[in-house]
Design a protein that fits this description.
It is a single chain. The protein is of the alpha+beta class and 484 residues long. It has a single domain, classed as Outer membrane efflux proteins (OEP), CATH 1.20.1600. 57% of the residues lie in helices and 11% in strands. A four-stranded antiparallel sheet has the order 1-2-3-4, with no helix packed on it. Helix 5 packs antiparallel against helix 6 and helix 6 packs parallel to helix 9. The longest helix is centred in the middle third of the chain and has 67 residues. 33% of the residues are buried.
Length: 484
């Protein structure tokens, strides 16, 4: 590079010294609540017979552990989660997206290093003797040329264009990892909910079959009374309707159970139905879970971390778009050997080399560069709003989950008491009907009330466990942003 070129580059650098492609990242501000509203009533007391599972009171500062599902005390659930972690298709796809992001970062980082190529060649040329030649031979003249050349080019990242692209790619890797963590949390929660639904449907089936047996016993008693003339067809037909209604309910529950088993199989990466031991929901434990401080929630939600990582990536893309509008300084060089004799190709006298520098600056691109910068800034603004929404949504999710856990617990306690009362009324009605002190209408009313109460109790118990899963999920399931 000669002195005039160096002087020219220095002059341009001085002129452009006031320009900047920097666009520092500033985290958007979101006002955080000082406490969660729905704190009272979560695990303060056990609903006794309604839950039938001993568990200590829940401390409000107990955050979920990373293996939060083990708190339910189900070895079957532990096995299902482990199986899903190794075979779930969504998790496999998420891992593949991480590898894609890493590969994209490798591509984005390539301009940080010189581009080096090597080439070699051999050429044999024929030429005719010149018309003024004194030689008598008319044979053509042959000449050889051999070359071996190494070429390199490198763009000096004067404005940080290439480093900004690499920063964006690295932030995308981080975002993809957080997205995978979100997928894992959702998958585990779905497995837990699917498992509880199977247990809940099994419990409802047991209640329905018990109710069918009771209804058939009552139908037999009504028919016996009809034979002795103390009952009529008006007494038998309604009871037949109750019996057949219970059979229809059983068929519906069996269909739902099959569908839920198939859905759980898909979560486990299998087209078959998993083997689930028919244990009662009442045999499970009530795990400890508390929301802690609202300010800590942002470290517990991988979806919030994902939103911010995407925002950081977008900010780096803005820097890249700004740098695209500034001049580019490229250095090129080549060196090698060239000879007409292959045996002398590597002779030091055959060495050739060249070195050049070029400065190119965009002057008019039809608004393309300005448009790219505006596009990236608009994307950043979009993702900033998405990040802020993810924070607000996280707090709303926790409040909803806290309320759900509290209300379903209250519902379960109340439904347990209602079921006990319905059972006592039904048993008394059966005894009185057999001695003829009440009519069949009163018996059927208490019968329907008890059957409905049993089914509602099973649904309330399932709803409570699902509400606990929702609370774990809203708190990030024990996941936390790594310190690094």
């Amino acid at each position: 590079m000669n002195r005039s070129s160096i002087a020219g580059l220095s002059f341009v650098s001085i002129i452009l010294a006031g320009c900047s492609a920097d666009s520092p990242y500033l985290r958007p501000i979101v006002e955080l609540p000082s406490m969660f509203r729905e704190l009272t009533g979560i695990g303060n007391s056990e609903p006794a017979a309604a839950i039938q599972a001993a568990s200590p009171a829940v401390a409000q500062d107990v955050w979920p552990e990373s293996d939060w599902w083990t708190g339910f005390g189900s070895s079957d659930l532990d096995k299902l989660v482990l199986r899903a972690q190794g075979a779930n298709f969504d998790l496999a796809a998420a891992e593949a997206r991480i590898r894609q992001a890493i590969a994209q970062a490798e591509i984005a980082g390539a301009p940080q290093f010189p581009d080096l190529t090597v080439s070699s060649g051999a050429q044999r040329q024929q030429s005719s003797p010149s018309s003024g030649s004194t030689t008598r031979s008319s044979n053509p003249i042959w000449s050889n040329r051999f070359n071996l050349q190494l070429a390199t080019s490198y763009e000096i990242d004067f404005w940080g264009k290439n480093s900004a692209a690499l920063d964006a790619a690295h932030a995308s890797i981080v975002a993809t990892r957080y997205a995978a963590a979100t997928t894992a949390l959702t998958t585990i929660a779905n497995v837990a909910n699917g498992y509880f639904q199977i247990l809940g449907l099994t419990e409802r089936l047991n209640y329905a079959r018990q109710s069918l047996a009771d209804a058939e016993d009552i139908l037999a008693a009504v028919r016996a009374r009809e034979q002795v003339g103390t009952a009529s067809l008006l007494d038998i037909a309604p009871q037949v309707s109750i019996v057949e209604g219970q059979r229809a309910a059983i068929a519906s529950l069996e269909r739902q159970l099959a569908q839920q088993s198939d859905a759980l199989g898909v979560l486990l990466g299998s087209a078959g139905r998993p083997e689930i031991a028919p244990v009662a929901l009442t045999s499970l434990k009530i795990p400890k879970v508390g929301p802690g401080l609202p300010s800590e929630l942002l470290r517990r939600r991988p979806d919030v971390a994902n939103a911010e990582a995407q925002l950081i990536s977008a900010n780096a893309s803005v820097r890249n778009a700004i740098a695209q509008r500034f001049p580019s300084l490229s250095l090129t060089g080549s060196g090698g050997f060239q000879s007409s004799d292959l045996s002398k190709l590597l002779d030091p006298k055959s060495q050739i080399f060249s070195l050049a520098a070029s400065l190119t600056a965009p002057i008019f691109a039809g608004g393309r560069l300005e448009g790219q910068e505006k596009l990236q800034r608009a994307k950043f603004e979009e993702l900033a709003a998405t990040y802020q929404k993810s924070i607000v949504q996280a707090f709303a999710d926790v409040e909803t989950a806290l309320s759900g856990a509290k209300r379903t617990r209250e519902q379960l306690v109340a439904q347990g008491a209602a079921t006990d009362a319905s059972r006592l009324a039904f048993e008394a009605a059966q005894a009185q009907y057999r001695v003829g002190s009440i009519d069949s209408v009163t018996l059927r009313d208490t019968e329907r009330s008890y059957f409905n109460a049993l089914d509602a109790l099973a649904q309330a118990r399932l709803g409570y466990y699902q509400a606990l899963v929702a609370l774990f999920q809203s708190l990030g399931g024990g996941w936390e942003i790594p310190a690094e």
